[in-house]
Write a structure and sequence with these properties.
Strand order of the largest sheet: 1-2
Number of strands: 2
Largest sheet: 2 strands, antiparallel
Distance between the termini: 51 Å
Shape: globular
Radius of gyration: 23 Å
Number of helices: 16
Length: 386
């Protein structure tokens, strides 16, 4: 067995039983501590810099996607998704199905950019209805691309990278849809929506990075499928009502003075839109705590053979990978929402989140070390502090 490589941040890498074509043993660097920069990758004879090591390419090539348990709705809709997939011609590549789904999100985002550029005005009803269709069509196609790959025998790790990369950027379209009909642009409520959504998405990839299982749900009743289709149905319902009158009502006006009298003043005076966004924030925090719990107590992180000190080091190392996305969340709140257009703030923060999330996806498949400080996020953080 080859000796473990030494890295600039110290500590040996974990070895595996498989071998590379040159006879060396590929090394799993998932738990390798690194703070400011990932381990340097040796250049080949061409002297060209490399982003992924030879070991990483090996792990990507043999990577197998392991989703979490399905919900009841997943099981119920699976025959429907299979039926739709069987209608596709065999010559359509799975990545084309993914692209077509992503284009739906692009269409919704583009139309909303025109009619509600900063989410401070409510778009026309037909725009909200279009967004409802695009949301449900996107997720349906997202559930079909994997089936098409297995149907055509073209499953590959590249497909997962392509699929999850689209999912990462499509969160901005879902965010834009909700923000447009609750009209929360130019407020810290919008920052709350975006940061909790994108941080939660990053944490799902972070969980897969350490546990090798991508979480899809919290129990059998609620999961990604329920959330995506609910977003579509909610948008459709919102296209049929007077949204401004509906969401501007206070809780005291909704439940009546007799019931509202038992609530704190700041709660009873909350507009419905703010109450719902508060609920979303609380739910997101609960899901994040559950994700942290699953990771730090996972057998790969807290091995039974570890001493208490070793287990604590591994857990702190795992939690440290959340530092940069958490800093992005804080940076979003450091920028007064009235000092910059909401769309510009959303796009810049969204792209920063997207970059580090995609890197987490790639490095998780490649089993490469992920640094605590991700320099791709620094420009946004500097602008936020400035």
């Amino acid at each position: 067995m080859a000796a473990p490589k030494k890295h600039i941040d110290g500590g040996p890498a974990v070895t595996t039983n498989s071998t590379l074509t040159n006879g060396n043993v590929p090394q799993d660097e998932t738990f390798l501590p690194c703070i400011f920069i990932e381990p340097l990758i040796a250049r080949d004879a061409s002297s060209k810099p490399k982003t992924i090591s030879a070991d990483g390419l090996h792990f990507i090539a043999i990577h197998q996607y392991r989703p979490g348990s399905p919900t009841y709705l997943d099981s119920f809709l699976n025959p429907f998704w299979t039926f739709l997939t069987n209608l596709l011609p065999l010559w359509i590549a799975p990545n084309m199905v993914t692209t077509f789904g992503g284009l739906h999100c692009g269409l919704a985002y583009g139309v909303l950019w025109y009619y509600a550029p900063d989410f401070d005005v409510s778009p026309p009803d037909w725009v909200v209805a279009l967004c409802a269709y695009c949301t449900m069509a996107y997720y349906t196609l997202d559930c079909m691309d994997g089936k098409q790959s297995r149907r055509t025998g073209t499953s590959s790790p590249l497909g997962q990278l392509f699929d999850h990369g689209f999912d990462c950027i499509c969160t901005l379209a879902h965010l834009a849809t909700v923000s447009s009909y609750v009209v929360c642009g130019g407020t810290y409520w919008y920052i709350l929506l975006q940061t909790t959504l994108q941080f939660a998405f990053f944490m799902a990839q972070w969980e897969e990075y350490f546990t090798h299982v991508l979480p899809h749900c919290a129990g059998k009743m609620i999961g990604v499928t329920e959330v995506n289709y609910s977003l579509g149905l909610l948008a459709l319902a919102n296209s049929l009502i007077d949204r401004e009158a509906f969401y501007s009502r206070t809780l005291s006006a909704i439940v009546g003075d007799s019931l509202a009298g038992n609530l704190p003043i700041f709660v009873r005076n909350l507009e419905l839109r703010h109450f719902l966004m508060t609920g979303w924030g609380i739910m997101s925090v609960v899901l994040m705590i559950l994700s942290i719990q699953r990771v730090i107590f996972h057998p790969r992180v807290a091995k039974p053979s570890f001493t208490t000190v070793q287990r604590l080091k591994q857990q702190v190392n795992a939690l440290s990978k959340l530092a940069t996305p958490f800093a992005l969340c804080v940076g979003g709140f450091l920028i007064p929402p009235t000092s910059v257009r909401t769309r510009y703030l959303s796009v810049t923060m969204g792209l920063a989140f997207s970059l580090i999330t995609k890197k987490m996806i790639v490095y998780g498949m490649a089993k490469m070390a992920f640094a605590v400080v991700q320099w791709d996020a620094v420009p946004f953080l500097l602008a936020a502090v400035w």
